[in-house]
């Protein structure tokens, strides 16, 4: 299962998990974060601004950042993955969507629809999705699937939600499977 939340919800969600990997997606200009009280198995912090096109003095997500996100998600097999950004709406939703798609080729549309169902306010970062779509050789399927769910409901901060890592959703889907994504 992938757990998605805002920075404000991070400690509460982490406290509900026994053993988890933590993916942090914050802006390079974000101040220090108090990680005390969190005990992730692994922690990756990838820094970029929540933008969908290059802008002066801001760091856009790029292919390298998405490779790191996908590789971290690939290595999380068997453990819950906790993904957070500032608001729990855009960067974390895009990363969770990309990781779920990497594990489940052919289910991009179903994953997008489930994301919308579980998080009405989620608006996955379009640039991150496009980069992942390219890295996973999805030929625009991920981009189209996210476009089909539209912009999320207006919100300052998203409510924590979970997105299944394995598809299709059946009783036997609780068994880990290997991801189709591989680096190099």
In short:
This protein has 184 residues and is of the alpha/beta class. Helices cover 34% and strands 14% of the residues. The chain is built from 6 helices and 5 strands; from the N terminus they run E-H-E-E-H-E-H-H-H-H-E.
What does this structure look like?
The protein has 184 residues and is an alpha/beta fold. The protein contains six helices and five strands, in the order βαββαβααααβ. The protein is globular. Residues 172-179 have low confidence and may be disordered.
N-to-C span: 26 Å
Indicate the multimeric state: single chain
Could you name the ranges where pLDDT drops below 50 across 5 or more consecutive residues?
A: 172-179
Report the structural category.
Answer: alpha/beta
Q: How do the strands line up in the largest sheet?
A: 3-2-4-1-5
Order of SSEs, N→C? Answer: EHEEHEHHHHE
Number of domains: 1
> What overall geometry do the principal axes of the alpha carbons give?
globular
**Percentage of residues in DSSP E strands:** 5-15%
**Tally of extended strands?**
5
CATH homologous group name: Protein tyrosine phosphatase superfamily
Biggest β-sheet: count, sense, barrel?
5 strands, mixed
Gyration radius, rounded: 15 Å
pLDDT averaged residue by residue: 90
What is the CATH level 1 assignment? Answer: Alpha Beta
The tally of helices reads 6
| CATH T-level topology | Protein-Tyrosine Phosphatase, Chain A
